[in-house]
Design a protein that fits this description.
Elements lengths: L8 E7 L3 H10 L6 E4 L11 E5 H9 L10 E3 L1 E6 L5 E5 H4 L5 E5 H14 L4 E2 L2 E8 L4 E7 L2 E12 L14 E17 L6 E7 L2 E8 L2 E8 L1 H8 L3 H12 L6 E4 L3 E10 L3 E2 L2 E3 L5 E2 L7 H17 L9 H28 L5 H16 L1 H13 L3
Parallel strand pairs: 1-2, 1-11, 2-8, 5-13, 11-19
Antiparallel strand pairs: 3-7, 4-7, 5-6, 9-10, 10-11, 12-15, 12-16, 12-17, 13-14, 14-15, 17-20, 18-19
The chain binds flavin-adenine dinucleotide.
The site of flavin-adenine dinucleotide has 34 residues, from helix 1, strand 3, strand 9, strand 12 and helix 7.
Length: 389
């Protein structure tokens, strides 16, 4: 429900009504906890990102009533991984994973719009156009300042959950954020392939950086990682020259692209926190970690953060909400999954970064070996579909 007044105290205050904050809010709607979501944007963001969601994420959203045909999700039934200049490749299929699909692709804009609708229609108060500008952590509660409708409101909560994408966590004195800039940009665009994509996603480790093609309706969504200099030059090309460069990188390993929509770019970095909890504070989603999009794992991981925290809160007595023992439990439960996915994603970026020929050859052999080894391939599919839990 859209909040018309700002409460002075709640059990749980969620900062950010993006995909991860919205899942937590929806789960808490079924409890007797008082909850408030403060969301800075007046309307959901029409973001050009195409998101690859794992089967596990789809289940989490569906179980919370946050899945709908209006998302126009495109199933992924096959993933094809290759490296530029070598023969090595690996293929993962949904039949091998024993699922009807490995995952699916949705647009960030459509997902954000659906979640905002559901939050507005549900019982949890949603304060739109409300930016949390400051946070103070005390023993029994935390206090935030919310800028809303030309005024600053002070709200206290037993637990403040940061689901704000990472901006506030970076400013808090008692939380250490580690940033590893990749000095890379991702170019995003919707492409038209010359032949149907057959619900295949392609991941190609090109010399200048990894390139992903995700099936999105009849089109393919491009996420092309490269140096900022290359990105600036390629953003300035006309469509024909851009497609020629892209098709040269694909080298026949994916269908030829015959048309490209508008291009956007995002800077890429790895950001992790020493701790994902503090006094009366928990971090979820991109507030807890920001990953390179190469393996399409950021939101999948964030949704599992929200799921774990929701499960703890659903089963807790009121007095336990935000207590240090509960927060320590949340941090412990998330450590393995978050650590493994972060390590896997960063490792993939670093492994395929070097153009050094012997290393390139070794990687090619690695991909070939993986393709020949059924159990290893199934394990990779399991990790990509469900995370490392
Ligand atoms: C190019 C690219 C491609 C990607 N592809 C994939 C993919 O294929 N699969 C995948 O799983 N992940 C992918 N990701 C990662 C994914 O987009 C993020 O992990 C995900 O959006 C994080 O969700 P979130 O809700 O934590 O944060 P966000 O989506 O950033 O939402 C945060 C929300 O908090 C609000 N907010 C911010 N500050 C405040 C404040 N002070 N007060 C109140 N509200 C505030 C914002 O308005 C926003 O609505 C990709 C990322 C990029 C950049």
């Amino acid at each position: 429900m859209i909040a018309t007044r700002v409460p002075t105290h709640v059990d749980v205050l969620i900062v950010g009504g993006g995909p991860v904050g919205a899942l937590l809010a929806q789960r808490l709607a079924a409890t007797d906890l008082s909850v408030l979501v403060a969301e800075a944007r007046p309307a959901p963001l029409d973001d050009p990102r195409a998101l690859a969601l794992s089967w596990g994420s789809r289940q989490l959203l569906g179980d919370a009533g946050l899945w709908d045909a209006q998302l126009e999700a495109t199933p992924i039934q096959r993933v094809h991984v290759s490296q530029q200049g070598t023969l090595g490749r690996v293929e993962l299929t949904h039949t091998e994973a024993g699922l009807s699909e490995l995952g699916c692709v949705v647009s960030y804009g459509k997902l954000a719009a659906l979640l905002r609708q559901r939050l507005a229609a549900g019982p949890v108060p949603l304060l739109e156009n409300a930016e949390v500008t400051a946070l103070r952590q005390l023993e029994a509660y935390a206090e935030v300042q919310i800028a809303h409708a030309g005024q600053t409101h002070s709200v206290t909560a037993r637990l403040v959950v940061l689901a704000d994408g990472g901006k506030l966590a970076a400013t808090l004195p008692n939380l250490n954020q580690h940033a590893k800039p990749y000095r890379q940009q991702a170019i995003l665009a919707l492409l038209t392939p010359a032949i149907p994509h057959d619900n295949t996603a392609w991941e190609r480790f090109a010399d200048g950086g990894p390139l992903a093609l995700l099936p999105c309706g009849q089109q393919l969504a491009l996420v092309w990682t490269q140096s900022p200099e290359h990105a600036a030059a390629r953003l300035a090309l006309d469509d024909a020259a851009f497609l020629a460069e892209l098709n040269a990188q694909l080298a026949g390993r994916a269908p030829k692209m015959i048309a490209a929509g508008p291009r956007n770019s995002f800077p890429l970095a790895l950001k992790t926190m020493d701790q994902v909890v503090g006094k009366r504070l928990a971090l979820i989603g991109n507030a807890a970690q920001i990953l390179h999009p190469v393996a399409g794992q950021g939101l999948n991981l964030g949704l599992r953060d929200a799921d774990t925290l929701a499960t703890l809160l659903e089963h807790a007595d009121k007095a336990e909400i935000g207590a240090s023992s509960q927060l320590a439990r949340y941090a412990r439960l998330r450590r393995r999954d978050a650590g493994a996915v972060t390590y896997f994603t960063d490792g993939l970026v670093e492994l395929f970064r070097s153009p050094f020929p012997p290393l390139k050859h070794a990687r090619s052999l690695g991909l070939l070996a993986l393709d020949l080894c059924g159990p290893a391939r199934r394990e990779l599919a399991r990790k990509m579909v469900f995370g490392s839990r």
